[in-house]
């Protein structure tokens, strides 16, 4: 037994870093599967892209999309770059939707294709909040 205490991971980023070389399966869905190595790599790609989008103030990233692998990659990417993901409720409309974004201090809202119309109708008119239609890693989005 070693006298040196082992460091226990304390954040999501720590947990992801601990699995970055793990060849075991991390995620399975109808579109395929990802090993932990692949999952952490996808998260790191999102972290780099999100870092490039950061502005002043709280680093809150709104996400308005379905619960799919991309959403999970964004959560992991946010953890790796120190951002906080704010899940935006797609059942809200108009002033309620905008209030959710403003009240949670989102700098940016990433919008999945399924919610493109909702964002176009309600989400593109808030000063100080960047809305991006999200197709993949954040650097690939439309303004």
From TrEMBL:
InterPro entries recorded: AMP-dep_synth/lig_dom, ANL_N_sf
Repressor in keyword set: no
Domain AMP-dependent synthetase/ligase: 25-135
Domain of life: Bacteria
GO molecular function: ligase activity
Keyword tags: Ligase
One family name in Pfam for this protein: AMP-binding
The UniProt record lists the keyword Chaperone: no
Segment forming the signal sequence: none
Protein name, as recorded: Long-chain fatty-acid--CoA ligase
């Amino acid at each position: 037994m070693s006298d040196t205490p082992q460091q226990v991971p304390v954040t999501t980023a720590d947990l992801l870093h601990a699995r970055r070389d793990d060849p075991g399966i991390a995620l399975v869905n109808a579109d395929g599967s990802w090993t932990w190595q692949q999952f952490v790599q996808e998260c790191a790609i999102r972290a780099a892209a999100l870092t490039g989008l950061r502005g002043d103030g709280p680093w809150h990233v709104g996400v308005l999309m379905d619960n799919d692998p991309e959403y999970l990659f964004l959560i992991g990417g946010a953890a790796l770059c120190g951002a906080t993901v704010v899940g935006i409720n797609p059942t809200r409309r108009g002033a309620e939707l905008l209030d959710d974004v403003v009240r949670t201090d989102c700098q940016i809202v990433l919008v999945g294709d399924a919610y493109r119309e909702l964002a176009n109708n309600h989400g593109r008119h808030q000063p100080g909040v960047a809305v991006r239609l999200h197709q993949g890693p954040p650097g690939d989005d439309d303004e």
